[in-house]
Known about the structure:
Layout: H1 3-25, E1 31-44, E2 50-59, E3 63-74, E4 77-92, E5 95-105, E6 110-122, E7 126-134, E8 140-147, E9 150-151, E10 156-167, E11 179-191, E12 197-208, H2 210-218, E13 224-235
Antiparallel strand pairs: 1-2, 1-13, 2-3, 3-4, 4-5, 5-6, 6-7, 7-8, 8-10, 9-10, 10-11, 11-12, 12-13
Amino acid sequence: MNSSKSLMLCSLPAIVLMTQQAVAMGPEPVLSKWMLDKLEAREAAGQDPVALEAQAWIGKSLNRLWLKADMELHEGVVEEAQYQVLYSRAVAPYWDLQWGLAQDVRPESDTTWMVLGIQGLAPYFFETDLALFFGESGDFMATLELEYEWMLTQRWVLIPEMEVSFQGQNHPEQELGAGLSEVEAGLRLGYHWRREVMPYVGISWHHSFGATADLIQQSGSEPHTSAVVVGLKLWF
């Protein structure tokens, strides 16, 4: 018997075992993950809002349903919020292409958007979420969120983050102007009390630009603010 036939016969038990394991595993299971990215109180000049950001997904390795919520509360009442329902498709390792609908809820008016975005890990493990929003009458908006977790020890972590917003049209009733409108940056120090639970403290800066800054100043408010934050992050 030549060497190739011997190698084939020696490999047969391994092939049979792998086949049996694949059959035993059955169909790919449906998984889920729920994340409370932020639940924080912000102490700023003249106001003490509470911010909440959460997201969840359910599905398999390639196709998932994503739900996202971002809201700000004043005295227990939702002041403004955005809710998203997205279909997500894995297009590369650590990257998902997402599309669906978003609903903005504001005191002045509600807006419905079509959303196209990509979410994942950029080089050096920057968590990235880029989304394009398309509304009625050619309205357009884009947001970019970046976050990085720098492990100082096995439990202490420093989290710098930034969110950039771009508006396609002027919305005076919402104090939003066309072009680069807002940049929010933050630095938070967290402690992994458990792997899934992390309280944190930090500071947040909010800067408005261009036409947005002009509209805010015209209303008598400050276009640049900062706040001390105390919050909780958890996932399961």
